[in-house]
Design a protein that fits this description.
With 79 residues, the protein is of the alpha+beta class. The protein has one domain. The protein is built from three helices and three strands.
Length: 79
């Protein structure tokens, strides 16, 4: 497995939600920050299927993850 990118700030607010484009490289061209994980979008969904990432919360037909859960996964993958 690839490790999280080191440039991303993981001191996230507990109420913050992250979308797929925040976690992986997607077709989105304009980014403020690099994605948390240096992987593709299909890899994110494989991780959800395997239980590495928790299932996302759907809001308005889009999927989001709690920032704390993502930070915990990133710490585990980096160790």
């Amino acid at each position: 497995m690839k490790t999280p990118t080191k440039d991303y700030e993981l001191s996230l607010h507990s109420a913050q939600m992250l979308g797929t484009s925040d976690l992986a490289f997607t077709r989105r061209k304009k980014r403020k920050h690099p994605p948390v994980f240096n992987v593709s979008e299909p890899t994110i969904w494989r991780w959800v299927k395997r239980g590495i990432l928790p299932k996302p919360v759907q809001i308005g037909g889009k999927c989001f993850w709690h920032a704390e859960d993502v930070a915990e996964v990133a710490r585990k993958l980096a160790a």
